[in-house]
Specification:
With 304 residues, the protein is α+β, with helices and mostly antiparallel strands. The protein has 8 helices and 18 strands. Strands 1, 2, 3, 4, 5, 6, 7, 8, 9, 10, 11, 12 and 13 form a 13-stranded mixed beta sheet that branches. The protein has a 3-stranded mixed beta sheet with strand order 15-18-17, with no helix packed on it.
Amino acid sequence: MEEKYASEDFLTRWLAGELSKEELEGFKASDVYREIMAIDNAAKTLSGPKIDVESALSRVASKNQKAQKEPKVKRLWVFTAAAACIAILFAGYTYLYGTKTYSTGIGEKESVLLAEGSIIEMNSNSRLSYKRFNWEEDRSVDFNGEAFFDIKSGDDFTVKTSQGTVSVLGTKFNIKNRKGFKVQCYEGSVVFNPLDKTHSSMELTQGMEIQLINGELYQKQFSQNTPDWQNGFSSFSEQPLSEVLDELSLQYPIMFNLNDLDINRKFTGKFTHNNLENALKTTLEPMGVKYHISTDKRIVTLSE
C-alpha cells in the first residue's frame, strides 16, 4: 500500500487535487505523507526558497479546474507544473534523507564541524559519511581511514568501521581504520564493539588503546596528548617496513619500486609530512636502504 502512495502517478493526482476523499484520507495516514510533510517543514527552516506543499496543491488544483473548461491541450501545462512540484519534493527528499560525505586525498587533511558542535579532523586518504536527516536523534557516521574525533556530550555517538563500531557519549579519540585497526582514547571513555563476535566488547578510558593485529586484539597504554599525525609526522615502533612505505604513500603522491627488497624488517622512528626528501632519508637510510627519486617525483626506486 505504501508503494502506491510513493508512485509518481499517485503524487501527480494528489498535487492536481484529483484524489477521492477516501484516497486522500488514506494518503494522509501514510508514512509517505508524513515524510513529505517533514520535508516541507524542514524546507521552511532553510535560507533558500520555501516549499509550501499545501499552497502548491491549491494552486495546481485551481489551474486544473480552469483547465477542465478549456481545450484539453491546456491540461499539459497542469501536469508540467505537477511534475515540477514532484521534482522539488523528490529533490528535497533526496537532500534531507541523503548522505553527506567528506573525503581527503593523498597528503590532504580536513576538519569537519558537525551540526551539534562536534569536530572530526581527518587525516590523509580518509572518508566520512552520515545521514543529514534526524541527526540529533541518530548521531552515527560511517568511517574509513584515520581521524581524531572531538565529540560533544549528548546522545550516543557511533562510528561504524569495517572492523566494528566505536560508541561514546562525549569524548576525544583517534581511529585508524586502514589495513590495520587502532583506537586511542584521549579523553573520557569509548566502547569498541567488534564485528568479529569471537572478541568481546572493550571499554577504553583515557590513555588506553586497542589494536587489531592478524585477527587478535591487543590493549596497552599510551602517553601522547594528541595523535602524531596532527603534529605533522608519523611515528613507528618495531613495525614492518611495509607499513612505513604504505604511510609514506598516504602522505606523499609516490609509488615504490621495491626490487625484491625485504619489507618485513622492523622500523622504529618517524618521518615528517612536509618534506619528501627528508621523510625518505629518515626512514630508509637508518635501515641501509638506498633510494632514487624519479624526475617527476612520482616513483621511488629502492635497493640494498
